[in-house]
Design a protein that fits this description.
single chain, about 40 residues, about 65% helix
């Protein structure tokens, strides 16, 4: 049986959605000096 090559986003949809959400979160919450002091 021959396997068809599927695009990466169809093989790994959860990983792609998580990466898009992480990039959006990173773009919306730009780091500042206060944020860097928040981390122990």
């Amino acid at each position: 049986m021959e396997q068809t090559k599927r695009p990466f986003w169809k093989r790994e949809p959860v990983l792609c959605i998580a990466a898009v959400c992480a990039a959006a979160s990173m773009a919306l919450n730009l780091p500042s000096a206060a944020y860097l002091n928040y981390i122990d």
